[in-house]
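Forum: Protein Structure Q&A
Topic: Joint prediction for protein chains with partners

I've read a bunch of threads here and the consensus seems to be that you should model interacting components together rather than docking separate models afterwards. I'd like to see that in practice. Below is the full input, 581 residues plus whatever partners are listed. Could one of the regulars post the assembled result?
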Amino acid sequence: MNVAAAKRVKYIEVAIKVHDLTKHFPNILAVDHINFEVYRGELFGFLGPNGAGKTTTINMITGITKPTSGTAFILDHNVIKDPIRAKEHIGVVPDVPNVYDEMTAWDNINFNAKLHGVPTEKRINRARELLEPFGLYDRRNDRVGTFSRGMKKRLMIAAVLIHEPEILFLDEPTTGLDVQSSRHIRTMIKELNGQGTTVFLTTHYIEEADQLCQRIAIIDRGKIITIDNPEKLKAMVQVEHMIEVSFDRIDGIANNLKGLKHVNEVVATGDKFRLYTEEISATLPLIFDFAKKNHLKVISVNTLKPTLEDAFVKLTGLRPEIMDMEKDNIRSHEAK
Amino acid sequence: MGKVWIEDIKRAVYIAEKDIKIYFFKGPNLTFGLLLPAVLYLAFAVGRTAEPIFAIPGVVAMAALFGAGAIQSVSLPLERRTGTFNMILTAPISLHAIILGKTLAGLFFGTVLSLAYTAIMTPFTQPSNLCLFLVGIVFSSFVFSAFGLFLSAPFRDIPQAMPPATVVRIIMVFFCGVFTSVETLPIALRAVAYSFPLTYSVDALRQAMYGSINIQIFLIDLTVQFFYAIAFLVAAIKIVKRTIE
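Posted by a regular:
Agreed with the consensus. Here's the joint model:
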């Protein structure tokens, strides 16, 4: 069996099955009868704006919250009826690292290992194996309260991996982290998935979902809008083409660009203009004519493929800024 | 099935170890667990003639009450606020075992503080039946640990959990024979006193201190404390369950 065939066989097995899962909070229907499956070895993304129901869904699947109705299965174990067996197979990294500030990094990782029944000798070797690549081994005897947010997140991931979970839930793993830490965590997620770990990832970052996930579910107001792989989602918005152009000045140009033949919409993004058209070859010469007539120098012209962000906007009707606003809200909330 | 139970109990012990390690020297624990029984006793007893043999069981019972309870007013609400409780919830352990682990930590803390008070009081007088005195301490710490969990179960922060729990405990101290014998109270107040587990704790410890043990009453004291503890634990589990539903 070649590698591709082996991967296909691996994908047939269902790691997570969610059936009619629903969560009512007082006056709020947080999750509304959702259904989906995540295949074994898959890196599955759960994308949606603030309050869409992402964390509530993770909480229900992992046993932190009880669903109002419906159920979920982890490798065929019903999370409601057989939660302990289901939890033996999972590791959960929440959006805010839930490690004990009062304990050392070593004690935190050991406590998690004990809760998951990892034998002492294996625990010690594995703790070292995990802390070293995360750059935390030299700080293993320091209290976690003295760690930065990025270090705590890395420790949390290391602690969760101590029992080698088959399914890893990552809730906003890179939110609030610096660029280097985020890159480190994304690389680690890819590596883990490459080694066969099923990953369930929730994120606000559309580009992160695009980079990492093999399939993405878009959730909004408690309902799943669509589930597909990123390229197919992008193909949904491919009826329109985009041309991104920048000139040596930007004042008052957008309105004039809208008057060009074949151009349906113009969106200013920084010092560039994004023109939506169905006739890309006919529009390009018109842009150069426009520049000549208005004494503008064209700095750059690019034709763009639809991004996952475009697909997201089309499918949810939400502006991408909504996602940025959420990130800002989270950060300001954390700062309080 | 048996193996699952053993694993669950082992994990409960790990939770207890962790709680003892983290919360033993937390400020509220030391203030409420170590100092408050002494302060309350001195505030009441200075200027009065209280025989050490009568007073010491009351002080030791207070140490169990505040010691075992103080850790519970800290650990559960704090862990729910910081999210570390969620980390435990995602581990393969039952909620019963989580609550048992937390109870064991309180039992340990209450027992250590009660023994510390017993040791401090040794120059004045010693229990006539040390063995039953120790049994009394363990049962008291168990029931007050469970009581502390019950009181803190609805809360998600220490400042919310601490005041009501402290008020309830102080009220108990004045009703339950710590400073004066329950028999000297008016009948209506005596009924109130017998509805609190502290009364049975003080009575058991006092019997062991005096050495004049009525084994039936001593066993009733222990049994009542045990059933109170179970009732508090069942109620605490229900409350915690409701908060995660």
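The first helix of chain A runs from residue 3 to 12.
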